[in-house]
What we know:
Elements: H1 5-24, H2 26-29, H3 33-38, H4 45-56, H5 59-72, H6 87-100, H7 107-115, H8 122-155, H9 158-161, H10 174-225, H11 253-262, H12 267-283, H13 290-296, H14 301-332, H15 351-359, H16 364-400, H17 406-428, H18 434-458, H19 464-484, H20 494-510, H21 517-527, H22 534-543, H23 553-578, H24 582-602
Amino acid sequence: MKISLLDASIIILYLLTTVFIGFWYKNKARENKESYMMGGKTLPWYMLGLSDASDMFDISGTMWMVSLCFTYGMKSIWIPWLWPVFNQVFLMMYLSRWLRRSNATTGAEWLETRFGKTGAGVGNSHKIVIVFALLSCLGFLAYGFIGLGKFIEIFVPWNFIQPYIPFDIAPQYVPHVYGIIFTLFAMFYSILGGMHSIVVGDVIKYVIMTIACIWVAIIAFMKLKTGTLNVPDGWYSPFFGSRLNLDWTQIIPEVNRKIKSDGYSLFAIFFMMMTFKGFFAALAGPAPNYDMQKILSTRSPEEASKMSGFVSIILLPIRYALVIGLTVLGLLYFSQMNLKSPGGEIDFERILPVVINNFLPVGLVGLLLTGLLGAFMGTFSGTLNAAQAYIVNDIYLKYVNPEASTQKVIYMNYVVGILVVTVGVVLGFFVRDVSQVLNWIVSALYGGYIASNVLKWHWWRFNANGFFWGMLAGIVTAMVLSKLVPDDRLLYYFPVLFTVSLAGSIIGAYAAPATDMAVLKAFYSNVRPWGFWEPVKTEVLKDDPAFVPNKNFKLNMFNVVLGTGAQLCLTILPMYLILMQRLPLMVTIALLVVIILILKRTWWNKLNDY
């Protein structure tokens, strides 16, 4: 075990701080349901944005990104479009404002503003979004749980712990034991203090991570000044042709096997499919997880947009400074690293923990471990908070005990939190690795979510019945495909998944009457979406001739294109800086400045318009 006393002290101090935060905000969280779940909608947008960014800065995702950067170099900036990361741009430009105007507590509650409280399919639409939310939350809990365990295992080998444990653990389950230990800390402060403690914990963690990431980047920069990277042709370029054409045969042959198993060799086809899926996923709006909860927790629609924009600015440069820094050190010291998993095969997701454990100085190791543990705890607690909100607000208060007292609601949040964590941990035992659950979430489950959630914003005739059947068709098809199709091929079946879900949505919509016009008029006049709303717009204008419809579709899409470009610049800028690519760095900075100046006029100055 190579953690020094100083490093261990930093980690222990952080863990004790999270316990203190939970106790400190306990009484604040117990004031009422809204205070517990949403911080009373009093937290400023920049704190919520920082918290949201921190929730996205998770161990599992960072391990995955380092392995991608090591393998694909600059081309790795495109692969996170699988989520897709540019959904934050759509949220920033207009969707966060649309969502926040509902003043709802959860995505399921939001459906009442769109489809009303009664009518064909309303109850079922409410239930299906809860099912989806819980499936995705449990998937993310298992995802984070596995990543954390693999991470800790590098620093605290099981042979140091085994003599003190009165039972034997199979090697493949060692990460799960570590995952359980640190999960308990995350569970404690998030359940006890609610949204307030989650946001404050995220702010502390973000400060620690920023210091650590910059320190790692400086070390990598200095090491690279006296060394060179042995990488294949094309590694330094973000551009690509029909094929990936990265040949590691003469350098690290095992990387070629990883590229083959990832399924990215035909990169142009992969990119087109990823972008096609990503565009519709972004149009659908945020999935019902911690991201949606942070948007709904903002003080106003304008602050919701600011928060979503702030996420990319504070997340990407810092995160990718760490990613490229660890990649550079991994490439420089590859021959000295042991990347074999307990099963004996090379696991490139171990690059991050192995580099930290062997090639970083005392003090920085403690800060980085603390930041990454905090990253896990932030992601875990944000996801847990979202799951609690759905179960307590949309099941318990709606169907079981609508008149529950505040004390009873808080008690139920405690019970539900413990139950959700337990189920998430159990699911983690059935997950092979980070990539497996990641592929299932982004390629299968989210693929089934898209069609219904695009139509709900943009088509007036879409109703609760269509929403239910579209979601059900998508989720069931996703489950079937996840059993029949290899993990790395799920993305290529997205057109099938989307078509089935779209058919379910349209057939279901026309199988039941349209949503009550009074509900549609209230939604349209409040949210003010663009799309196919002509009959509703006509009725609204009859009642209020002064009403001004939203004509900002072209402007919103123009801003989305610019924002996506800015997001790519923010991603690649620290990579060019640390790799000392001067000309590309200057071009990137110039592009970023131009885009920011344009968006100041076309987005920031127009936040109150529609």
